[in-house]
Amino acid sequence: MKILFASSEAVPFAKTGGLADVSGSLPRVLAEMGHEVFLILPKYRSIDEKRFPLTKTGITLKVPIALRVETAEVYSCESLPRLHSLFIRKDAYYDRDQLYGMPSGDFEDNAERFTFFSRALLEAALALDVNPAIIHCNDWQTGLAPVYLKTLYRNSSSLKPAASIFTVHNIGYQGLFWHYDLQLTNLGWELFTPQALEFYGKINFLKAGMVFADAVTTVSRKYMEEIQTPEFGKGLDGVLRDRKEDLYGILNGVDYDEWSPVKDPFIKERYSPAELKGKRTCKADLQREFGLELREEIPLIGMISRLDEQKGFDLIEAIMEKLMELGPQCVLLGTGKEKYHLLLENWQKKYPRQLGVKIAFNNVLAHKIEAGADMFLMPSRYEPCGLNQIYSLKYGTVPIVRATGGLDDTITDFTPQAAAGNGFKFRDYTASALLEAIQRALEAYRDRPLWENLMVRGMSADFSWERSAGEYLKAYQATIEKKKAKTADR
Ligand code: ADP
User: Fold this and answer.
1) For 21-52, how does the pLDDT look when each residue is reduced to its tens digit (9 = 90+)?
2) pTM of the predicted model, to two decimals?
3) Is 393 helix (H, G, I), strand (E, B) or coil?
4) Cα 81 to Cα 32: distance, rounded to the nearest angstrom
5) Quick count: other Cβ atoms within 10 Å of Cβ 375?
6) Is the CB of 305 under 6 A from ligand 1?
7) Which neighbouring-strand residues pair with 74?
């Protein structure tokens, strides 16, 4: 099958969050399974071209935007057989320090940058004669591509047969812009209705993808159910309920070539379920890195996160004093909203002996935290899939999570009597429920054999991509069939 996979970030080229992990792994696994995959991204400044040399294809695209026609160059990188990574070079839009904005706020021209990308990716498919059977778009940044396919490109002979799939990685990020930006898109005002692109007087790029794609997927079964309710749907639950027949919840896989203590190149000493000694070395290394006391017996709680309301920092704030009284060490790595930078820095000033904070995006340190911590904290308000809890399982770092979205699908609560479960889970989004879960974890930690048993159970779980990729292929196939049947009906 020929698959065009469009994303605004993908490992190893550019990353701000889980979308990049998925867009880095799924296309690769599909290519390994024998499919021909074209991964297409903007060419950002942050791409390390020394490690991943990009070559000019010689193709220049002409992309209409508002009343202008802008040009863009197409670059490529061939890393694996059947996986072709393509890059849209338009420096005025993508040659910046960050992908979407600064800590103080989003770039003001994001509507233009990603309208351009959504159209350029189709132009690139045409220019390169890709003839995809599937065009798989991801999140609001590519939300207009399914709209273009059904409107301005509906008569294009090589794109017409393609079925479009749209994956919602996080319904909290919708790409909402004022109505006047519709003129950038060259789409007609007849689409500015609640049935199409309009959302309470604004244009909603995520909704556009959800309405116009042939099928919609999201990244866990639980999240798929949640976002059909007003509590989690962020105003789009009705749109999803309308698309129930074409909706899939497919849990993300993880890439164990990158995230496994057996082969991780970034950690101090490697380890496995059969030989856990290396984890102690990694813990000491992490304590050193964060300037904490090198004490093996003190439980160490880790957290790696975008600093955002979604991730539950208000709950942590509410329990911080009590948590510190319980005596664990904590290390926090994150970047994001400025107000959380200040909050975390204040915590560190207040509890310098127990708490280590790094405000940074640092992949090596993320690996060291996964390996060195005893527990991993994710008290999210909502969590579409969540990857760090799955990485944590593999590293024997026991997750403490809120029962929402993918966290609920992947973590089962520990019951000491039955020696079952792989982590600690709480349901209500309250400070007391979080504190209770942490207390249970700290309690269990005191019983070393019990704890090691829990670690090893997590380490043996398998969330690799093959199973999820198989589910995507089924969804692709079903969508192609449905589309064919619909076309034949007409
Ligand atoms: P989200 O996509 O909501 O940010 P996920 O759990 O799905 O959350 O994915 C987050 C990914 O980003 C993980 O791979 C995590 O390790 C990584 N990550 C998040 N913040 C940082 C950071 N400050 N430094 C390094 N990696 C980070």
Assistant:
1) 999 999 999 999 999 999 999 999 999 999 99
2) 0.94
3) helix
4) 8
5) 24
6) yes
7) 88
Complete DSSP assignment for 474-485: HHHHHHHHHHHH
Q: Does residue 253's CB lie within 6 angstroms of at least one atom of ligand 1?
A: no
Task: Note the helical H segments in 253-312.
Answer: 277-289
41 C-alpha to center of ligand 1: Å? Answer: 19
What is the β-pairing status of strands 55-65 and 68-80? antiparallel
CA distance 9 to 54: 16
Nearest residue (CA) to ligand 1, atom 24:
361
Determine the Cα–Cα distance for residues 398 and 419; give it in Å rounded to an integer.
14
Residue type, 261: P
Cβ atoms of residues 408 and 324 within 8 Å:
no
Which run of H or E residues covers position 206? helix 205-212
Amino acid letter, residue 88: I
Cα–Cα nearest to 437, from 427, 450, 452, 447: 427
Cα-to-centroid distance, 216 and ligand 1 (Å)? 23
User: Which backbone phi and psi does 265 adopt, to 5 degrees?
Assistant: -75, -10
Distance between CA atoms of residues 467 and 471, nearest Å: 7
Helix residue ranges per DSSP H, 290-430: 313-326, 338-350, 363-372, 388-394, 405-410
Strands 134-138 and 2-6 come out as parallel
Given pLDDT bands bounded at 50, 70 and 90, which one contains residue 489? confident
Phi and psi at residue 374, to the nearest 5° = -90, -35
**Around Cβ 157, how many Cβ atoms within 10 Å?**
8
Residue 36, SS3?
Answer: strand
CB 18 near ligand 1, within 6 Å: yes
Q: Best substitution site from 313, 341, 387 to test ligand 1's pocket, by max atoms within 8 Å of Cβ? A: 387
54-107 tens-digit pLDDT? 999 999 999 999 999 999 999 999 989 999 999 999 999 999 999 999 878 899
Q: Which of 290, 304, 407 to mutate to test the pocket of ligand 1 (most atoms within 8 A of CB)?
A: 304
